[in-house]
Amino acid sequence: MKKSRIYSFLFIAFSILLVSCASYKPTAPAVKPTLILVSFDGCRYDYPDKAKTPALDKIAASGVKAKGLKTSFPSKTFPNHLTIVTGLYPEHHGIIANRIYDATTDTFYTLRNGAAREGKWYHGEPVWVTAERQGIKTATLFWPGSEAQINGYRPTYYKKYQHNLPFEQRVQQVLTWLDLPNDKRPQFITLYFHEPDAAGHTFGPASPEALAALENVDKQLLTLLKGIRSRHLKNKVNIMVVSDHGMASLSRDNVIFLDDYIDMNDVTIIDNAPLTSILPKQGKAAKVYRQLKDVHPNMQVYRKGELPEKYHYNDYKFIQPINAIADLHWSITTHGHFDTHPDFPSKGTHGFAPDYQEMNAIFYATGPAFKKGMELPVIQNTNLYELMCAVLKIEPAANDGSLEVTKAALKE
C-alpha cells in the first residue's frame, strides 16, 4: 500500500512536469532599441508644405518636427551629411566641400573618385563609429563617408554607393537588416535618397518635378513605416528624417565672370560657385585678392582666416587662400565656361550662406524616444549628433553641438 502511494505520487509529479515542459515557450530575446536615420537630399524646409507627404505628416503627428534645419557652411551635400553625423562644422570634420585639394600630395577628394573611401580625409567621429566603439552594431546605406574606415572603425554592415539602385530596394535592405537575429541586428541604420536634390537642380526649387520627386521618396518612407509596423517594431524603432540643405533658383542673368577681373592663368579653381575656392599661382595671391575684392556687389571675397566667424570656415588646412562667395541666386564662372555650357547655371543649386532661409533643410523624428506632436524652432544641424547619441544611449565624442537644443523633443 505504501509503495502504491509512492508510485501514484511519482506518476502525478511526472505528469505535471510533462505538461509544464509542453506548454513552455522560450522567451525571445528583447529587441534592442533602434534608430534609423533617413536623408532626403536637397529637401528644402518648405517642400513638404507644397507636396503630398503622408509619411512625413504621419511622423509629425506622432512625433517631432522642426520649423527648419539650419545648414552649415557651405550648404553642400558631403559637408552637411558629415556635420549631421559628427556634430562638427566642416572645418572640424574635414569635408569642407564636395571637391577638396591636398597640395602636399597633389590629390583631390571628390564625390566621384575613390578618395571618398579613404579615411585620411575624415576627422571627428561619425555616430556609427561612436556606436561601434561602444559595442553597438550599425549599418549604413550610402551615407556620405560611410564607406571609409574612420578611426579604425567601419559600420558592421555597409554598401558601396550605387546611384541607380532603385529606392524600393534601398528600403527593402533596411527591412532585411531589421529581420536579422537580435545578436546580429544593427541598432543604428542610415538610409539615403538622392532626391529631391537631383530634380531641384534640373527643374528648379519647388518645381512640379521637384515636388513629385519628394512625393516619391515620401512613398518609400511610408513603405518603411509599414514594414516596421508589420514587424511589431513600432515601439522599438526610432526614425529621424533629415535633409542636408535647401535649394535656390538661378538664372543666366545673374552671373559673375571671374575673367572680367583676373587673369585665369594666375589661378587654379579648386571648387566653384556659390563658394568658389581659388588657389593662386606662386606669388600671385596678393594681386588676385586685390583684383577681386569688392569688384562686384553680389560677390564677397575673403582670404583664408578672414571669413566671418559665423561661417566656421577658417580653421582647416585645405581651405584655399582665396574664397569668393556669391549672394543668393547668383553664380560665379568664366566667359569660356558660360559660352560653351548653355545649360549653365542649373535651374537650382545650394552652397550659399546658411543665413538664407532657402538653404534650410528638414527635420522630423518619431518613435518611443520622442514626444508626440511637438514642433521645434529652426535648429542648427550640428546639434543632431548629440540627439542621436542620447537616443542610442551612448557617450558622444567631442563635437560642436549641444543636446540642450533638442532634448525638449525627448521623452523623460
Structure description:
This protein is an alpha/beta fold. It contains 12 helices and 20 strands.
Please render the helix and strand layout as text.
Blueprint: H1 2-23, E1 34-40, H2 47-50, H3 54-62, E2 64-66, E3 69-70, H4 77-86, H5 90-93, E4 100-102, E5 107-109, H6 127-133, E6 138-141, E7 157-159, H7 167-178, E8 188-193, H8 197-203, H9 208-230, E9 237-242, E10 248-249, E11 255-257, E12 267-271, E13 275-280, H10 285-292, E14 299-303, E15 322-326, E16 331-333, H11 335-340, E17 348-349, E18 363-366, E19 374-376, E20 379-380, H12 384-392
Parallel strand pairs: 1-8, 1-9, 2-19, 3-20, 6-7, 6-8, 11-16
Antiparallel strand pairs: 2-18, 4-5, 9-18, 10-17, 12-13, 13-15, 14-15
Helix pairs in contact: 7-9, 8-9
Structural class: alpha/beta
Strand order, sheet with most strands: 7-6-8-1-9-18-2-19
Low-confidence stretches: 9-28
Number of helices: 12
Distance between the termini: 66 Å
Main CATH class of the largest domain:
Alpha Beta
Domain count: 2
Secondary structure tally: strands: 20
What is the name of the CATH architecture of the largest domain? 3-Layer(aba) Sandwich
Strand % is 15-25%
Q: Using the coordinates shown, work out and report the CATH topology of the largest domain.
A: Alkaline Phosphatase, subunit A
* Rg over alpha carbons: 26 Å
